[in-house]
Structures are given as C-alpha cells and as structure tokens.
Amino acid sequence: MAEQTVSKDLEDVKIEDDRVDPWKVECNSLKGIDYDKLIKTFGSSKIDQALIDRIEKITGKPVHPLLRRGIFFSHRDLNIILDLYEKNQPFYLYTGRGPSSESLHMGHLIPFIFTKWLQDTFDVPLIIQLTDDEKFLWKDLTVEESNRLAFENAKDIIACGFNKDKTFIFSDIDYISSSKAFYVQMLKIQKCVNLNQSCKIFGFDETSFIGKISFPAIQAATAFSAAFPQIFNGKTNVPCLIPCAIDQDPYFRLTRDIAPRLNAHKPSLIHSGFIPALQGATTKMSGSVATSSIFLTDTPKQIKTKINKYAFSGGRDTIEEHREKGGDYTVDISYKYLTFFLEDDEELEQIRQDYSSGKLLTGELKQKTIKIIQGIVADHQERRKNVTDEVVKEFMSIRKLAFEY
Ligand code: TRP
User: Which protein family is named in the record (predicted)?
Assistant: First the structure.
C-alpha cells in the first residue's frame, strides 16, 4: 500500500465563527469564508502552486480554471493519486449529489464540471452516488419522490458531458437493494463506528433518527472498490479520489479513519469552496432560497432580473464616487461569478483592474456576468434535452465499464 499521512482525520474539528458542515455554510464576512483558516481547522492541505505545477507537468496540459483560480483549494493525499497516475496504476473517481430538489442551481454544477475535467484528464472510471435515501431521511420527502428526483438530477449530471462507457451513476435506494457487495461494505463500516463517534462528527443526538446515525456508512462505502465488483472485477483495493465541496469532508474524515481497519486505502480528496448567494458571500447559493440562486432551468430573462436585482455589488453609491474611488471586487458577487465561469484569464484580470480603478461601472460588470451565465445555462439546457430516460437507464445500469482489472 502506498504510504499515507498519519491519521489526523478524526481529531476534533471546531469552527468558531465560520460554519461549514454538510447542513450549513455561513460566515460573517462579505468577502466570504476564510478558506485558509478552514484548512487549518479541518487539518487538510492547501493546494499550492507547487502542486498545480506538478499536475501540469505529469498531465502535460494546463489545469482547469477552477483549480488555477483556487476554487478547488484544498486536498488530502492528492500526491498519492498523482504518484499512481505517473506509474500508470489504477484509481477511480467518486463524487455524488443529494437529490433534494427538482432543478439544480449553478453551484451544484461546480463539482461536476471539475469531475468531468478530471475524468477526461486522467481517463479513469467515475462513480456518482445519488443519495436519495439521505434526502428521504433528512427532508420532508417520500421514498418515491426522492428516488424520482435522483433520476431527474441524473439528467442534469449527464448533461455535463460524462462518458457513458466510463461512468456509473447509482441511486442508493436502487443499488443497495440489488448489490450484496455494497451492503457487505456498509456492514463492515457500520461495525467500525460507534454511536459516540457518529454523534461527535455529525452533531447527531439521542433524538436523531437511527437512519441518520448510520447513513455515513453509505456515503463512505462508495469510497471502497469492494462495493463495485462489476466494475473492479472483485479487486478490493483500487484507490479512490473524491472531488467534493469541503462541507462533505466530515464524511470522508470518518472514511479515512476507518480505511486501515478494513485493509483498504484511505480515499484521497480534492475540495472546492462554495459559490456565494446572490445576496452576498456570507452564505452559499441554496436551492431552498429561490432568490439566492440561479437555477439551470432559469430563462435568460430570469437570469438578467436576478443578477440586476439581487447580485450584491461592490460598486459605489454614485457614478462620480465610483469613477473616483473604484469598486471593491472582493465583495462583488457578479465578479465572483465570473471567477467561476469566465474562462479567459486575461479578460478576467482586465475586468478586475477596470472595476477596481472605476473605469468599469457596476451596471456594465453585471451586464458581462449576465451574458456569460445566460450562455452557460442555455448550453446546459440544450444538452439536457438530449438526455432521454433511455440514456439515464444506461448510465445507471449495473455493468462493467471500459476498463480492465
Ligand atoms: N451528501 C451529499 C449531498 O448531500 C451527496 C454525496 C454523496 C456526495 N457522496 C458524495 C457529494 C461524494 C460529494 C462526494 O449532496
């Protein structure tokens, strides 16, 4: 087994002012979450220039803008995965989504856009878990409804462009009921974690449904190749890299902690931050707050109205003052969205300079952001139209992928 960092995964994680966990993301600065501080409290590692240089060197191509711009900013044991890639040894990618709403918002796209880049770059199998069971337990949803939402969300995920021969998407409710291997993996994990640990990591207490308390074993099981014999030909020790937003880290701190006891590799992780709410970077876009989010189903007009009306601006009160003092891009939501979605580095830098100097007005900046986001959403809607129920079924059927083990 490759050498792995000494387990610091389960040390107490305490957050004083910013709150980042699977259920809430909140901070008190309009500049957004202090991600450097989060790395320290979580005990993960910063993605620094040296690591980015290494990725570019071994893949022979520039890294994705989301990585270059620090939106994917933290990792655990990413070097182990890069070592494997250099030695031509196998690993797989695992990401997921909790299907709690009919339509996704722009923030939901980020991990999938980046995961597609990872899949294209490293050419490895990808497993996408849809936790319809999780949403049944946590939300006011029936089993049937959350299972249906999993299929609907799969369409948006597939529309990101994943390769069908190399990607397995599953709903927990469906896969667990037909895979002995997955259930066995869950069981083994359930025997490694006691009530006290589950409560401490996730904040459960004696009033929590017992389904919630054992749910982490389900999200953890997907990080072990033993749960997918059809893909890995029964190989139980294929290492895994998980791209995810950093609020999911508690699940994987737990997973990494127990992995050695199951004689398996600790999964590696690559973490993103959050796309801020329209109203400002103190919270993230949230599907349950309609005016905080731009949905993938929004019309061009809705996108325009939302950005013009709600996007928090770093501009000044009057044009004269703005021209004189310039805008504050560090709190400006339209600018922040451009850092996620405008591909051209030079153009982005020009916008930053012009906004800061006062040459570019808030209205003009918003105009640019509206155009870019309208384009991305329209392209997505076009691709989603082609994702039929038939295509979804193919991605979700239990099968071998285009890799030999
Ligand atoms: N719990 C996640 C959510 O609510 C879904 C999920 C399952 C996930 N497995 C994952 C997310 C792995 C990222 C990586 O959205």
Answer: Belongs to the class-I aminoacyl-tRNA synthetase family.
pLDDT band at 16 (very low <50, low <70, confident <90, very high): low
CA of 253 to the centre of ligand 1 (A): 14
Q: Are 270 and 71 in contact (CB under 8 A)?
A: no
Q: Three-class SS of residue 61?
A: coil
Q: Is 42 helix (H, G, I), strand (E, B) or coil?
A: helix
Angle of helix 362-385 versus helix 106-122 axis, rounded to 10:
60
- Owning domain of residue 264: 8-277
Mean pLDDT for all residues in the chain: 94
Residues 6 or more apart in contact with residue 372 via CB below 8 angstroms = 337, 338, 341, 342
pLDDT digits (tens, 9 = 90+) for 233-292: 999 999 999 999 999 999 999 999 999 999 999 999 999 999 999 999 999 998 888 889
Q: Last residue of some domain: 256, 277, 298? A: 277
219 Cβ below 6 A of ligand 1: yes
Domain count, the chain: 2
Shortest-distance Cα residue to atom 8 of ligand 1: 96
Tell whether 339 is covered by a domain: yes
| Sheet of 45-46, strands arranged across | 45-46, 72-76, 268-272, 240-245, 92-97, 126-130, 167-171
Alpha-carbon distance 35 to 45, whole Å?
11
pLDDT higher than threshold 50 for residue 49: yes
- State the average pLDDT over residues 177-204: 96
d(CA 187, CA 261): 13
Residue 348 CA to ligand 1 center (angstroms) comes to 31
Hey, CA dihedral for 344, 345, 347, 351, is it positive or negative? positive
For 268-283, b/e burial (b = at least 16 CB within 10 A) is bbbbbbbbbbbbbbbb
Per-residue model confidence as pLDDT tens digits over 337-365? 999 999 999 999 999 999 999 999 999 99
Q: Is the CB of 249 under 6 A from ligand 1?
A: no
What is the number of the ligand 1 atom nearest to the C-alpha of 100?
Answer: 4
Residue 1 binned pLDDT confidence (cut-offs 50, 70, 90): very low
